[in-house]
Amino acid sequence: MTTNTILLLLLSLVIAVGLSYFQYFFKAKSKSNVIWLLAFLRFLAIFALLVLLINPIMTQNSLEITKTPLAIAVDNSSSITALKSDKTVSDLYQKLISNPALKEKFEIQSYQFDADFKPSSTFDFKGKQTNLDEVAKNLKSINKNLIFPTVIITDGNQTTGNDYVYRFDPVNKVYPLVVGDTTTFFDLKINQLNVNKYAFHKNKFPVEVFLQYAGDKTANADFTISQGNSVVAREKVSFSSSKKTATINLLLPADKVGLQIFKAAISSNAKEKNSYNNIKNFAVEVIDQKSTIAIVSSINHPDIASLKRSIEVNAQRKVILVKPNEINQLQDISVLVLYQPTTAFKAIFDNNKLAGTNTFIFTGNNTDFNFLNQQQHNLVFKMSGQREDYLSEFQSQFNLFAIENIGFENFPPLQNLFGTVTTNGNVSVLLSSKIRNVATNAPLLAFAENQGKRTAFLLGENSWKWRLQSHIDNQSFEKYDVFIDKIIQYLASSTTRKSLVVTHESFYNSGEAIVINAQYFNKNYEFDEKARLTITVTNTATKQTKNYDLLKGNNSFSANLDGLTAGKYNFSVKELNTNTSYSSHFEILDFDIEKQFVNPDVAKLKQLALQTNGKAFFENQADNLINTLLENREYKSIEKNVSTKTPLIDWVWLLILIASLLTIEWFVRKYNGLL
To answer: What is the distance, to the nearest Å, from the Cα of residue 602 to the centroid of all Cα atoms in its chain?
Structure first.
């Protein structure tokens, strides 16, 4: 409290005494007890009112103890049940959280993880995937800038996500508590099988298989790939105590068009504890044509390589790189990508007026915009010779095809010549441009359709930086490559637009996310947000039917069909207001990745502990883990002096006190006839 405040309070005290004295004692004929009571009440009321007007700041100090967080993350995946360790995990968790010494020293945080990570104190061990990378990422965010230990009760068998060993903060110790039988059993396993989702009719497609062996003796095994009752490939494989793995590369014929289901299996005469991991089903969709995309450019630029990689991620697409004077015929080309066209492209534009091939035009600093204005009329360019950087802004009302915002606003700017770009006719804008966060109302990525011919425009160079930024944001090129693939898919198709467009895969693996996406357009081919879409899914074997509503998302509707068992399914999507429908089928392959393991991954968990200067413990060493945590002097509680400052005007009870004093004074005066 400041000196000025103290002086004001003393002055208030004098004023309150003076006013009370003046009213009740100055020239008073009697000084009875009632008068003294009334003077005292008036003194308190006036003094409290003056104090309220001065409004001094009241400071209150208190001690607060902050404990070090102890994160306990429990593996909730079904592999815990498969290893018969679910009860052990629950008992270990209860032992840790109920330990009085740990509770006194740490602030215990309980989490569970499978494919996702979330706070929880109960576990059902039904997770379909294991992602320890999620544990590392979320704990860094939750306990940011803190030094804390982490206990992970797990078998260490990760099935999805980045390698978790180097994802945890090395400053914070990790103590894996390993569960599961570490005894080595004889086991043959198909560890991984790589195959493309698509193959081309009358060609051969590669299959790469990684086999793994656990045991101490020499073992001979048969590896087969079969389709139905026919064996299409067979290999003999030998293992020993020094040879634990084997790689098999095969070429299988794509003789039939459509979805082809295969079964890979490894077997031997010895009995195994887990035979589920001896078989793996996989599928390949055989198609009878392949689209060719020609990228035409007279200059070299990183954009071209980036675009080629993104397009060829889809095995149905083949990219050829040509100079403007090297293309003679356009009939075999599905999409024509024209990179920064100049007058050297005149022959291509002339030929394409007859061929009608859909085009994807990129502009940049080397583009001849006067020439481009002559060759097309969808966009009108009035450009200067000055270069400018253009940022992108996603237009959510875009409805030509389903596309999500993959973080375009965070992408680096594209470089183009400065000027004005205006649209002419039927042009749909997916990305508009900004200059230093000021909207230009001009397109950056736009699409036009005239007389059945489709054209896309990307107005700026250096889109290769977009692909790299997408990888930084998502640790994968997948989202950006899907974005490019949807553009090429739109340009490669010249069919009339349908009112109901449904996107789905031909097959899924058990445990994968099964999502059906749909778009419904009104008669003006505008995305209809008020559409009512439902999906009916029928198991072809059991005839069991399930109905779902498709939920509206960003410019599309979707249904999550997780939980369906392996098998073949027919489905129908229907718009209830117009009865428009779409029917198709898909298949779920029987594969539970969480049942592939016989032992915990002790080596990986020990490596994680070593990387963070922690220590790995086994399930019978829980007491040792508790002692290690308690004896570690790095983790100390912090005692803080918390100073709370409260203005007196916030004290509501003081207002009530003033009102009560004045009320009591009035009643006493009334009772004694002094009013």
So the answer is: 29
Question: How many angstroms separate the CA atoms of 675 and 661, rounded?
Answer: 16
Nearest to 573 by CA among 487, 522, 499: 499
156, 162, 164, 167 alpha-carbon torsion, rounded to 10°: -170
In sequence order, which residues have a C-beta less than 8 Å from that of residue 370 and are 6 or more positions away? none
Rg (CA), the chain: 37
Cα separation of 290 and 315, whole Å? Answer: 8
* Backbone φ and ψ of 271, nearest 5°: -85, 140
Per-residue confidence (pLDDT) for residue 650, from 0 to 100: 72
Q: What is the reported pLDDT for 28?
A: 65
**Could you give the 3-state DSSP secondary structure of residue 242?**
coil
Q: Where does the pLDDT of residue 27 fall: very low under 50, low under 70, confident under 90, or very high at 90 and above?
A: low
Beta bridge partners of 546: 537
State if pTM tops 0.85.
Answer: no
Q: Which two tokens stand for residue 171?
A: 């400053």
Strand 204-214 with 174-178, pairing:
unpaired
Q: What is the mean pLDDT of residues 316-339?
A: 86
What does DSSP assign to residue 114? S
| pLDDT tens, residue by residue, 125-136 | 988 889 999 999
- Paired tokens of 519: 């778009």
Say whether pLDDT at 524 is over 70.
Answer: no
